[in-house]
Structure of ADP-ribosyl cyclase/cyclic ADP-ribose hydrolase:
Amino acid sequence: MASSSSLSCIKRHQVFSSFHGPDVRRGFLSHLHNHFASKGITTFNDEKIDRGQTIGPELVQAIRESRVSVVLLSKKYASSSWCLDELLEILKCNEAQGQIVMTIFYDVDPSDVKKQRGEFGKAFEKTCEGKTEEVKQRWIEALAHVATIAGEHSLNWYVSMNFSAFMFLKKVFVNFDPPTAFCFAFARANEAEMIQKIATDVLNKLNLTPSRDFDGMVGLEAHLAKLKSMLCLESDEVKMIGIWGPAGIGKSTIARALDNQLSSSFQLKCFMGNLKGSLKSIVGVDEHDSKLWLQNQLMSKILNQENMKIHHLGAIKERLHDQRVLIILDDVDDLKILEVLAEELSWFGFGSRIIVTTEDKKILKAHGINDIYHVNFPSKEDALEILCLSAFKQSSVPDGFEEVAKKVANLCGKLPLGLCVVGKSLRGQRKHVWELQLSRIEASLDRKIEDILRIGFDRLSKKNQSLFLHIACFFNNEVADDVTTLLSDSNLDVGNGLETLADKSLVRKSTSGHIVMHHLLQQLGRQIVHEQSDEPGKRQFLFEADEICDVLSTETGTGSVIGISFDTSNIGEVSVGKGAFEGMRNLRFLRIFRRWFGGEGTLQIPEDLDYLPLLRLLHWEFYPRTSLPRRFQPERLMELHMPYSKIKKLWGGIQSLPNLKIIDLMFSRQLKEIPNLSNATNLEELTLEGCGSLVELPSSIKNLQKLKILDVGFCCMLQVIPSNINLASLKILTMNGCSRLRTFPEISSNIKVLNLGDTDIEDVPPSVAGCLSRLDRLNICSSSLKRLTHVPLFITDLILNGSDIETIPDCVIGLTRLEWLSVKRCTKLESIPGLPPSLKVLDANDCVSLKRVRFSFHTPTNVLQFSNCLKLDKESRRGIIQKSIYDYVCLPGKNIPADFTHKATGRSITIPLAPGTLSASSRFKASILILPVEYAGLRTISCSIRSKGGVTVHSYEFEYLSLSFRSKHLFIFHGDLFPQGNKCHEVDVTMSEIIFEFSFNVGNAKISECGVQIMTEEAEGSSIRELDNYETESSSSEVDSHETESSSNGYEVGDGDGDYDAEGFKFSEDENIKTSKQTGFRSWLRKFFCLEEKKMNTTEGILMESHETKPVFCTLLHHLRKVLSSR
């Protein structure tokens, strides 16, 4: 038995497939591996391995080096001892190292695998001949276990075709002996969908990569465990705790790691970092306004609403008193901050958690926070481990370094950040270098953290020291790629320099690609710049607001200054001298901003200020003048950000703009004209959102062939947009709120996202719909939209909210890739006659006139929303309730439907269970009846499933629900009774009763009734019976009616990806196709496919034109054609 350590290894393969070759290799498996390859999933290739009686070391290694193992169980799988031994090794890796195991039951029932019966059992018994009882028992246990792992079951996919397709196929194959032809064709049609879903599921599993931002922090898990215990997360009471400790000890890191683990459990959450000094008293800004700014920052973050503005200090309590929130306030240095942001527990809803980090324990005590977690310095052993990981990339001290390493750790005062910085500065150095550094570390300690951190800085090269100062003073928390671009003309090797700084723990790159420098290191860098001169105007960077005010008003800036980062939030009113920038000829980066959006700081710029240096970055929020200085030359400019400015025109004439990549003038409401951009050939982003005076876009944008994003949203006066141009790189075009726009924009055929909400566009022209073959998302919600006759064929998201359409048009129903359809607030919508089979989400909330909804019963959907659709007829309600869903459905209702065999008043229900009722793969269907609810933000509905003893069996949570009910509504969802797959543990299927408890964060009293149906194996198979019943109950005249009403139109069939060949086929009742068993099925298929010469008629034509059956037939014919071409 391999130990867990021996099983841990580098993951060289993403997927390992265990299968019986003769059953699946040339068919199902080859298609599956092709799908894997198309999604970039790498699989282990075993074709060069000679298979014997036992698996060799190469195969064992391949299993251990794979992230996911896919076990493809077929009828003859157990005929191979090789396969069975593979299975043993896979389960061993699953247990020892948590390897993900996924199952596919291909033409075999899981119960046959579990109990080794039927054909599967016969093959197994034959394999066991001559084997020891011990080997046989291990195999039996492995098969019994793998059979309980939830997976795809091919037999379940055979019955998901709709009734029309089923009847047509049955008629087509009536002359053939089932299951030879009929079953073959029926199965292959949906096998492609199953393969696609498996590939997607595997990709999702591979993408579930946990955050690694906090890997390598010694003792972190112990900190988090203690904090979670202190937080009492299972309690509904509101708790506020403190994290206290000295600077550099790791408080912020612990808080961020805690946020990383807890945030998924809270719908509303906010991490407010580095609050130190945020309420500093500034002349000209009163205390009340400062408090408003701080509350505004928290509310904007927690509600994820930019530019939010609050007007009184009761806003937090008013908005959050009934909300469950997670708020982390980091680096608090003033009691007033807590009084402003979290004065009382009553400000927040049940179950809320507020976490405060600070260096000052008195602040916590004064605020009544008694639950305080003290972050102590690490033990000597942990401190030494931190140093060793940084210096030697191992947790223990190498031979010969024991004494000197201990001395260094002690001299660093066991400060984690200091240990990391000093350790990495000594990485790779010999022992005598370590000894030479001892005296310097000891001399510079002097109980000052800055002195410890200075060691790492001093050991950098001059270029990397300069890069360190650039980041500390200007580029901290900026995107690394953007910084690299802005510094590309410097003599700094930014790419390698960032790697060096990261290696030495002076910066890190976040998972989102941002450069992050610890604020203590930032303070060190800024202190170093302060030491450059006693006169601020002679330093490299200016970042202190009061010093910048002095330099600009007294015009004392010099050529030493290369960057200014000026927060004007709290400056009051400051006048800038007319020659403020004259002396700063080397200024390259100018950022003037408001950290707190509501700040009232004002810069008075004289009209005769006519000079700005040759800047690389110009970021000036609330720019107060109508034009840029006359002598400003933008030829070196790379990024221009001037949101909320009073600018009317940037510059005149045609300027040289070879470096310009970004222009952002959002909400510059007086902007009337965009300059000629003919020479801005490298421009990638143009943001003009909210420029309410802008009337037209210049024709010069035709030269912007690298433009990726164009945003003119809410330019309410915009009427003229250049046409007959094709911007090759444009991917996102936003024109929401351009209320005067009447014609469809034709400026690129490569757009992926097109937002045209609240415009005056009435329809999509056919010429445009045909050109936008790459469009994924179309938003055209507007009351001006009265009809929709054409739509781009391959979109996945379509938003028609608030339009005046009365029915879902055929052009939408026929979309083969549509996954999300939103028709919210379409008050004239009366009918949804069909939906694309590919659809995953339908949002029809507040369609108050909606009466009829028809769709395929057997095609699963993720979400169906019909809130406040009070006119739905009885048949539509029944269809919606019975619809197969993955997530949930919501619709008006007065009672729990009769399908739910267990019902109760209130929000919980106890269900007695007879022996043998449950299995590890059991599922359930639940419904709750919710009383009317007024909209007051996003909501969460939860379900907890417990055993009789109170042990939690499983839980579900539906977050971010936008719920507003005018009457009683049903909320229905399906789920697994027990956790499946990688989360699956041993489950007790012998429980005598099971308890379902539902909760609603609006208030549990809103749940008036609940119902549950336990889906037994019989119930799971009911879909097959329903299909059969549907077939027998439907008269033959229903099928005949298709024939009499049909046309002779052919149908284009293609490769299954949505691009169809101009090939048709004909199946005529007049054509007597007589094929004996001896002639064979394949010869008949060749006659069936006379594709170049024949077209289909009557029955087949009408079915192929049906929007619900069309994709099914495409898939079917695609696979039949492959069968023929392979022979």
In short: The two ends are 47 Å apart (CA to CA).
